[in-house]
Write a structure and sequence with these properties.
292 residues; mainly alpha; 13 helices
Amino acid sequence: MNSLLLDKKTLGVLCVLFASVAWAFEPILAKLAYLSSDALSTTFFRSLMIFFSGLLYLMLTNNGNIKITQSDLSVLVYLAFAGTLFADFIYLCALSQTSVINAILIGHLQPIFIVLFGYHLLKDHLTQYDYLGLLVMIVAGLLVTAKTVDNLLSFQFGTLGDLFALLATIGWATTTIAMSKFLKHLNSGVIAFYRFGIAASLIFIYLFITAALTIPNIYQILLGLIMGIGIILYYEGLKRIKSAQVGALELSSPVFAAFLAFFILGETTTLLQFFGFILLIFGVLTLSRKET
């Protein structure tokens, strides 16, 4: 029994780590895609490729079975609207107005909202570690968006792109709670199939009506494929390990993203942002204390 539990946890850890690598590539590929496209088109092709990835995965692991209950469908529709049509799209919009490191670090403030929503909606009890972790992560967010000490002292916090990234983070937090609470019994491919299939269909209708449908560039295709693999791995990891552990493991993503942004896009990280990242790690680990 212990070996089975260990295998389950190890597999969950590996799934989340590989998913974190995918998160790191997402903003890089999105920025490269914008050289010849826009955020809405990129959201469409990203969703379409994730849909096909989910279809392939459920055919391989679920015998192609896409049957769900009516209650499952209602949650999946919410994931499509809140998680993709809103959060994914507005995050891709944010990447056209802010740096990779800002966007991905703000995205990793998601545990703040998961804890807060869990407290108010699910009546989860907050411990002293929760309060301390939330406070530390809020400070981390201020350091990341301020970028420099001068901006911090003059209360200049972030750009419109940073605000978009924050709104996306809130949207993702609600979908994480919904998925964790209501959809853990579903095959990960089924979740990806419905969530991104619904979103891609609606975006396609809009692009078709407005005659704005274009041929995808290679970066949009790669973005969708990598994110398709990443999202399926993330769902699989979320089924196997605790949400707090998932949040802690995801902190490897900003490290990968910082290196990629520097070598591919020439973006640099300020000293204040580096301290913000250290605080972010401490905050997530503090939140995890209640589950250890």
